[in-house]
UniProtKB/TrEMBL annotation:
GO terms for molecular function: DNA binding; DNA-binding transcription factor activity. It holds the Pfam family UTRA. InterPro entries: Bact_HTH_transcr_reg, Chorismate_lyase_/UTRA_dom_sf, Tscrpt_reg_HTH_GntR, UTRA, WH-like_DNA-bd_sf, WH_DNA-bd_sf. It comes from freshwater metagenome. The keyword tRNA processing does not apply. The lineage of its organism: unclassified sequences, metagenomes, ecological metagenomes. SUPFAM superfamilies: Chorismate lyase-like (SSF64288), Winged helix' DNA-binding domain (SSF46785). Residues 6-74 form the HTH gntR-type domain. SMART domains: HTH_GNTR, UTRA. This is Unannotated protein. Keywords: DNA-binding, Transcription, Transcription regulation. GO terms for biological process: negative regulation of DNA-templated transcription.
Amino acid sequence: MARNRGTAYQTLASDLRTSILQGKYADGSALPTEAELSAQHHLSRQTVRRAFQELVAEDLVYRVAGRGTFVAPADRQYLRQHGSIEELMGLSLDTELELIDPIGARVDVAAAGRLRTTGDVISTVRFRRLHDGKPFCITDTFFPLEVGQQLGDLVELTVQGTVSQITVIGVLDKRLESPITEADQSITAVAAPADIADALGCDPGAPLLRIDRVYRDGDGRAVELAVSHFLPELYSYRVQLRRNTP
């Protein structure tokens, strides 16, 4: 069966992206040429070129006519394309989680309502995401009480100030009986609340990008609500849209 060209270039772009984020290619180093990747992956030059174009658009690489494609400097703006749960889990490849408020139980009627829990007591944790040592995101995460209790033994989520390379959904997914299969997402622009501004090092009222995600397991149960505030000068969010085809 012929390989779908769209899938082929996306798969190659994803493989190259992962290699770059894991440090397999140093800043400024050359990636394999179109001809080399074409032969290695049994793809057309056009497909390889389109994969490179994806990475250029994400500011992960840059191209020099007649010389090749090179890894962009690490101080670039942090930009990730998220099209799957796996890609969200991949944040641990090139960012760090710094724990601000350890996981614990509290009454939160609004979060409980969004998680559709039977009571108003939920588990919550606050952390900061760092890229190259710079904070670019603050996330408040909420769980049904019984779900949060499954994370209470993790040093990364219980000892304030701990810095680690985990994602909460990545850890949670391994502990749930039914894995995370989907997420509902909303994106808005907001003014920075005072506590968020202090944690991000910006002025209160500064514009932030807010992304809310409700994660559900295979049974359709809401297992996590993540509310994240991003500094727009350090973070860009990119989504690729396609037309439906018959």
